[in-house]
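We treat protein structure as text, and this decision shapes the records that our systems exchange. The remainder of this section carries one protein's record, kept here as part of the documentation:
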Amino acid sequence: MIPVGRKTIILIVVLIGAAGLGWVLFRQLPDSTGPGGRGKGTRSAPVEVAPIQRGPIELKRTFSGTLEPRAEFVVAPKVSGRVERLAVNLADTVKRGQVVAELDNDEYVQAVAQA
């Protein structure tokens, strides 16, 4: 049987050896830079720093789509002819009876004069 003093010394030597082996194995693990990691060998990211400024914030949104009209109307003249003047612009609201375009009446004036 081993005396108590000798058992204690052997136990201490084995514990120190196990602790040393654990420490060597722990140091060989890959470095962790996440929460709780040692952060060894971390690289800093290039950033641009600017002072805080107050200013307006614009709310801007871009949408794509197709617009469908509620109603469509065909505009047709009572007589044919060449358009001389347009009285409205694109997307203007037009009321019933409003003049939209004037036609060249030279041909009709000549026809009346010859008759």
